[in-house]
Known about the structure:
The chain is α+β, with helices and mostly antiparallel strands. 41% of the residues lie in helices and 22% in strands. It has 27 helices and 31 strands. It has an eight-stranded mixed sheet, with no helix packed on it. The protein has a five-stranded mixed sheet with strand order 17-18-19-21-20, covered by helices on one side. A four-stranded mixed sheet has the order 29-26-25-31, with no helix packed on it. α3 runs antiparallel to α4 (340-359), α4 (340-359) packs across α10 and α18 runs antiparallel to α19. The model has no long low-confidence stretch (mean pLDDT 97).
Amino acid sequence: MRTDTPQSIQLADYQAPDYLVDEMHLDFALVPDATRVKARIAVRRNGDHERPLKFNGERVKLLGVAIDGVALTSGQYETDEEWLTIAAPPAAFTLETEVEIDPEGNRALEGLYTSAGRFCTQCEAEGFRKITYFPDRPDVLARFTVRIEGDKAAYPHLLSNGNLVESGDLPRGRHFAVWNDPFPKPCYLFALVAGVLDVLADDFVTMSGRKVDLRIYVDTGMAERALYAMDSLKRAMKWDEDTFGREYDLDLFMIVAVRDFNFGAMENKGLNIFNSSLLLADAATATDLDYERIEGVVAHEYFHNWTGDRITCRDWFQLCLKEGLTVFRDQSFSADMRGEAVQRIKEVKQLRARQFSEDAGPLAHPVRPNSYIKIDNFYTATIYEKGAEVIRMLKTMIGAETFRAGMDLYFERWDGQATTMEAFIQCFAETSGRDLSAFFAWYEQAGTPRVTLEATYDAAAKALDLSFEQTTAPTPGQPDKRALPIPIAFGLIDEDGRPLRDTEVIVLDAPSRRVRVENVARAPVVSALRGFSAPVNLTSDAPAKDAYVLLAADPDLFNRWEAGQGLARGLILARAAGRPDEVGEERYAEALERALKDQSADPAFKALLLALPSEPDLAVIATPADPAAIHAARAALRVRMAAHLEAELLDLHARLQEPEPFSPDADQAGRRALRNAALELMAARSTPLSRERARAHYDGAGNMTDAMGGLVALMELGGEAFEAALADFYVRWKHEPLVIDKWFALQGRDPAEGALGRVLGLTAHPAFEAKNPNRLRALVATFANFNQDRFHDPSGAGYRFLADQVLATDGFNPNIAARLMEPLGQWARYKPELGALMRAELERIRNSPGLSKNVVELASKALA
């Protein structure tokens, strides 16, 4: 039974399942509000015990239960809101159940639900228990055979995991399909889709010569928009063969796009289900960022076939085993597709914005948590992005060749099983011959380490002394921190930018370490943490002039960008604290001008140089954060940059127009990114010329990237031109849900004084769908996460708005409600008067009746 206080689940309490399942036969009779699910399950006792059988089951209506064909009476089993319990089952038997569920009424979008007249599933993490009774845990792996029956006109496509083994027509206009998945899998990887769909078909020949049929199912009339996703899939399949030796194992691979989906996508074996925003694209409706995300997410879900499906996690505490590892793999793929340096900068920007913020607040947790109430709440940046960074560090420390050998051993040893992080790391310990026990602390310890660097040059000895120290601040439940092994890649250049020392790696594996670098011909500039070799905050005693040398000439492009970001952070925070450095601001603008004139630099890289650190990033650094002061200081630096760079920005904007047909490739995308960045910076100053350029940019846009670039610039400028463009955009695209999501999101970022009023008004707009996660995130989450100045209004109105949205959403979709609440959890980071208002809204949420476990857990942790 449920209790008033949700009980946490502890890693230390893990026990192997009492009963295992070898075969699972499911029979679905699809009816939108009354689907019947029959299950025939081959069960066997795991070990010598007499404990009862307990299968998970929630929101299911039990119609019958039998063992070995004999129906059980009410006294032979018990059910409650969460379990089916059979007190004394045989050692091995066939369990048969029949249940009824209501997919149409399922607005939580977990288990089996309907979306736009189609049936769809989402079973990770604990959705399968809302379909039928089963041990809903990842360490119970079974072979699934699934029969689906439905109305042929309403549901012409009946899809599930594996291979189609039988299909046919039935009386009364119905039909059926039978699917068999030959690979054992946990139930969270089960998938079912049924409905009217268009299909894009292709094929791929594997490295062993097998032909794999590829199918992408989309809304009617949308097949052409799946072409880029199909191209991305085929490139990902080839890349995984070349890079990791992993060949696809079934004869068919399918992807389905759905609009109502809590997540980005799901890696169900052989039948990936995608949020349509991450699958459908053409030049008219999708931006370059959309194309980039589609490429990365298609690859991510495909790579899960081996790192997540063939080998899965023993329990949900090991979630990073599949997610962190697969993010590392998709990032490596994207670096090969789009350029290593630019891709790395984008990854670190996201890491700092999401994960460093998480580590700095009350929701900080290790990459492998020790406890949870709802595992849904741990699909976090720490699990995904920091998990990927930990694997990147492992590869840096042991070398690429040894890392590949460790991956090969992992695939060989654990194929077809559910395993742990310890087993994963042990593979690399064996192939490297190294003791990696200290490295494992990265999985067990929360927080972002701070590394300090002091450099002293000994001119007489021609030697450089580097002194490193590391500290990690206390996090909830972990007041004392261990020293971590931190790989620090560094190089040396002189004051004229000439290389003195190529990149080397040292490992800081103690609280402090001193390193002497011999044979340094002249006083160097230290380029430390090249390529962001570890997820840490680095501070140095180097003078500001060194940063300008790095910005101008560091051969490591990541550190060239990082030098610029560091200078900008210092200038903005100094002005926000009332100590403006106008000379420094002008020098910074001059350095950017030189960088923009560098003909050898990639346009995509220049676009990143022009983007100042975001307000949320700056709020993580400032203690306590004053959002209004940060916003004003950042805006002032943008005005200075725009004034100094006016001629260069105008030239870039005129020169980078694309005369050729649209292509989403990295080269064209980079040029568009720089042209739009130039326009956005021009819009920091409201001049007749900037207004004219912004309006002409929007009016002349031949693709969605440029249309959104024009709208963003017009939003910065405000006024009638912006309102007219908004109205025009809506009329033009009101029948395209994914485009209208962009329209809502843009207004969520509006920096104007009436932003909250605009957002409140939009919640009553006919196109606003609160029960659609994409639409809700586009408006509400964008406002709370990215419109810092207006969300943190001193009246607290922004906080009240968000709390109201959380409480309303929790009534039908607890998963999304918990995600929406996260900005309030950072209350301790802000100046006291704001923090008190944020905390009050968290208390209002926590004290509301009937809350889900998801929201209770996050609210309680945020207030602890």
